[in-house]
Design a protein that fits this description.
The complex is a heterotrimer of chains A (294), B (131) and C (147). Chain A is an alpha/beta fold and 294 residues long. Helices cover 65% and strands 9% of the residues of chain A. Chain A contains eleven helices and five strands; from the N terminus they run αααααααββαβαβαβα. Chain A has a five-stranded mixed beta sheet, sandwiched between helices. The radius of gyration of chain A is 32 Å and the shape is rod-shaped. Chain B has 131 residues and is an alpha/beta fold. Chain B has one domain: 2-Layer Sandwich (Transcription Regulator spoIIAA). The longest helix of chain B has 18 residues. The two termini of chain C are 23 Å apart. The longest helix of chain C is centred in the middle third of the chain and has 21 residues. Chain C has a single domain, classed as Heat Shock Protein 90, CATH 3.30.565. The chains are: A alpha/beta (294), B alpha/beta (131), C alpha+beta (147). Chains in contact: A-B, A-C, B-C. Chains A and B meet through helix 8, helix 9 and helix 11 of A and helix 3 and helix 4 of B.
Chain lengths: 294, 131, 147
């Protein structure tokens, strides 16, 4: 393609998109050698060039739409998928959001250099306007990149929370048909819900007739969590298992009393060991009873 | 006048066993209630085991029927035990505010029968409540 | 964010007799399962639907249930609307109290159902009767509980 005079007679955004379109191949070649693309696309250089072209075609679309400052511009949508893959790869290499942002900033400089070379013969105000538009466009791209990364991080945090929830509530089989959950750390509404479901599932799985809910490692509970504990006990009973709560700290006992929660028909023991002893004694008595027909 | 519940009430020698399977429409539940109390008074059974291990849902209507069966059994000098309730059903009932305090429960059929001094090694008595 | 398209699926079911409740329970269960609801959440929604369908039958003299599959920005969910042409629910607040006796049951029908779902609305539409709306979303846990 022959480099013509800088797109005179066009509106500024049209001139910008025309410039980007005309220079796509050269820009892509320059970008492909930058650390950002080199680090992400390690297999072949062609791959990097292709990715550069994809990002550029998105930028061209945004420029054409004239919505240079609009994060929601449709042109950015296809770019996001590409950006997610790239930023995720950079994050995995240990780069912070700021470092990745800086790498994307360098993309702009390569394009600005080319624009300067292109518009050497153009009116200074015209080239200044193009420069400004280009800076704006790349500024928006950087915001999109940062936004994409934050969103990704949020999803990771959400996933890890869920994993943590499940890991943090192990149900252990203490004895034949006797299960226990030793709870450690803060209990919130979501976690106590997971605890409840896990414990009840374990009762089914092990055919347990007794379950111990040990809260020695729980510093405090709020009213919602206390209610969850009571609901767990009530649900277990409906399923045919007795649930004993052990290790209620004085502070928690106080909270429960202040909340007006009636622990009257909930069996409680001071320690996990006491609860286990109670469970085994109960089991012995029940077996003795059932041996003597009524 | 009474519709038949189509749910068999098994008499294991003084111990009645009712296994509710699948869906239980309201009128069938009411019919079952009548049938069970009638059978208790006729046979003089001292125990009643209701196995709901295959029920995927118990709403307040069925909960009331179960509670009433237990109360009526008590009047007829028989003890009722509810067996095999699934976790999701239990959580839902408790959330509804229906903890059924008057109803005895057991995890398995074997365990419930043992409570009456009857020993059964029933193939289906272990691992109930599977989906 | 790419805006999610609002896919809407509608099922209308009559509530004329006892056996209709069974059909509604089945429909709600299978649609909730399809929407990715967990077992506990399915059971809660089905139970609430069963309570309200019975309420429609016994107090509203019959009516219909409208089940709508939701696929909006909150993720997949299910909304069920029960309408009848009965006397309506004059004292909504009282009707929601535990122990307020409905014709059959333990008086836990309306108030209890409210605790089983995430959205619960009772209305007495100008054209008469009662309209009760419930909805739940499958992604409600744990996000909605604000871990």
């Amino acid at each position: 393609m022959i480099d013509g005079p800088p797109d005179s007679g066009l509106s500024s955004t049209e001139a910008l998109s025309a410039f980007l379109r005309r220079r796509t191949e050269q820009i892509a070649q320059r970008w492909a050698d930058l650390p950002l693309f080199q680090a992400v696309f390690t297999v072949t250089r062609d791959e990097a060039v292709e990715a550069c072209q994809a990002v550029l075609s998105c930028l061209v679309e945004v420029a054409e739409s004239g919505r240079l400052e609009d994060l929601e511009a449709p042109g950015f949508l296809p770019a996001r998928r590409q950006l997610v893959a790239m930023t995720a790869s950079r994050s995995r290499s240990g780069l912070s959001i700021a470092q990745v942002d800086r790498e994307f900033g360098v993309l702009r400089d390569a394009v600005l250099d080319m624009l300067a070379a292109d518009s050497s013969g153009a009116a200074p105000e015209e080239s200044a306007r193009l420069r400004l538009l280009l800076v704006t466009l790349f500024g928006t791209l950087r915001v999109v990149v940062v936004e994409t990364m934050l969103q990704e991080n949020q999803e990771i945090v959400q996933r890890q929370r869920q994993q943590l929830l499940e890991m943090a509530t192990p149900v252990v089989k203490l004895w034949d048909r006797l299960v226990a959950v030793p709870l450690i750390g803060m209990l919130d509404s979501a976690r106590s819900q997971v605890v409840m479901e896990n414990l009840l599932e374990a009762i089914v799985e092990h055919n347990a007739d007794i379950a111990i809910l040990d809260i020695t490692g729980v510093p405090t509970v709020d009213s919602l969590v206390a209610q969850h504990l009571m609901k767990t006990v009530a649900s277990a009973r409906l399923m045919g298992a007795e649930c004993v709560i052990s290790g209620i700290r004085p502070a928690i006992a106080q909270t429960m009393v202040q909340l007006g929660l009636d622990l009257g028909h909930v069996t409680t023991r001071a320690t996990l060991a006491d609860a286990l002893e109670w469970a085994l004694e109960r089991r012995r008595r029940r077996e003795r009873d059932s041996r003597i027909p009524e | 006048m009474t519709t038949h519940s189509s749910i068999p009430v098994l008499d294991l020698g003084g111990l009645l066993l009712v296994t509710i399977q699948g869906e239980l429409p309201d009128d069938a539940a009411v019919a079952l209630q009548e049938e069970v109390t009638e059978t208790i008074s006729r046979t003089g059974a001292r125990g009643l085991i209701i196995d709901i291990g295959s029920l995927e849902m118990v709403d307040s209507f069925l909960a009331r029927v179960l509670a009433e069966v237990a109360a009526a059994s008590r009047l007829l000098a028989a003890r009722a035990v509810l067996v095999g309730m699934r976790p999701a059903v239990a959580i839902t009932l408790v959330e509804l505010g229906l903890t059924l305090p008057g109803l005895a429960t057991a995890r398995t059929l074997t365990e419930a029968a043992a409570g009456f001094g009857v020993s059964i090694e029933h193939a289906g008595s272990r691992g109930q409540g599977e989906t | 964010m790419i805006p999610e398209r609002e896919r809407v699926e509608l099922v209308h079911l009559p509530i004329r007799e006892d056996t209709d409740l069974t059909v509604i329970r089945h429909q709600v269960r299978s649609l909730a399962r399809l929407a990715g609801f967990g077992l506990v959440q399915q059971t809660k929604l089905v139970t609430a639907a069963s309570e309200l369908a019975r309420n429609t039958l016994l107090h509203g003299g019959g009516g219909e249930a409208e089940i709508r599959v939701l696929d909006g920005p909150d993720g997949p969910g299910l909304r069920v609307v029960f309408t009848d042409s009965g006397p309506g629910i004059p004292d909504v607040e009282r009707a929601l109290q535990d122990g307020f006796s409905t014709a059959n049951g333990l008086g836990m029908g309306l108030g209890g159902s409210k605790r089983l779902v995430q959205e619960f609305r009772i209305e007495n539409p100008p054209e008469g009767g009662a309209r009760v709306t419930i909805a739940s979303w499958s992604a409600s846990f744990p996000a909605r509980y604000g871990v």
